[in-house]
Amino acid sequence: MDPSEDTAVQDFLEILEEHRKNCERQGKYVEAEIAKNRLDELKLHEENRRREAMRSRQIAERLGVEEAHMLEFQQFNLIWDRKMTEYETHAEELVEAMKERHAAELRDYQRKLMGKQLRPKFSKDLLNLRKIQETLAKQKDYAEAHKIKLKSDALEAWELEKWHSERQQDLLQKEAKFKFNKQQELLALQKRIQSGREEQKKQRHMDLERLLQRYQNVKAELEAQQNLERIRMEKLAQSGGLTSMGNKKTTKTMKRTSSA
Question: Basic residues bias located where (predicted)?
Fold first, then answer.
């Protein structure tokens, strides 16, 4: 109801009450009874109207708190979803960058390994056979020198094959060790990323708990305030003072503290 209408109703009740008193003083009891009944009806109607107005306003206040909470909750999720998406994107970039760097380092390492010009170290037996071969050739004992040469060539071929095999095995072991070290570096990065991910989830949960607690505090404060308002109204109604309240407002402004 408009404040001016509220005042008009109150003025009318006062006029009707004065009329009842005048009728009573003048002995016009029938008219006084009519005025009394009408006054009771109007007071009851006014009390019901005020109760309904208070109920509607309190519902609007509760809905306002709910709406504010939902907006804050939606904003909270938007901010955290964006933050976590950015974290995952950055984490993927770090992992991919490290993998690319490792691949380049592996190629360089392989080139260095293959670029080393190593010469095989032959056995004493082979070296002795070559000396004997040379000595026999100098002595012009070519037939015997030829026999020793065939034996030396066979031994040299076997030792070369063994040397190549061992060198290949050594290269594979060094490459495997290099890859293992790089894999450990990648695993360490992924572990740090996972640790950061868990920390983000923990922080989000803590922030959500604080947000929900603030909402519960505001809601409880509003409910307590509205309960007190209803109690005061009922007491005033029982004492007959509700309709003499005039245009006094009982709405209390809620202050909500927001902290991220």
Answer: 249-260
Number of domains comprising the chain: 1
Polymer length in residues for the chain: 260
In a domain, 260, yes or no: no
Query: 254 in a domain, yes or no?
Result: no
Q: Given this model, what pLDDT does residue 248 score? A: 41
- Give the separation between CA 99 and CA 179, rounded to whole angstroms: 11
How far is the C-alpha of 55 from the C-alpha of 230, rounded, in Å?
9
User: Are 38 and 234 a contacting pair, CB within 8 Å?
Assistant: no
Residue 17, domain member (yes or no): yes
Contacts with 198 (C-beta within 8 Å, 6 or more apart), sequence order: none
Q: Sign of the C-alpha dihedral, residues 76, 77, 82, 86? A: positive
Q: How far apart are CA 200 and CA 87, in angstroms?
A: 9
Structure tokens given for 203: 């922080």
The predicted model scores a pTM of 0.61
What is the average per-residue pLDDT within 100-111? Answer: 92
Residue 251 located in a structural domain: no
Find the domain containing 130 and state its range.
3-243
CA–CA distance, 81 with 99 (Å, rounded to integer): 27
CA neighbor of 191 nearest in space, from 90, 89, 91, 83? 91
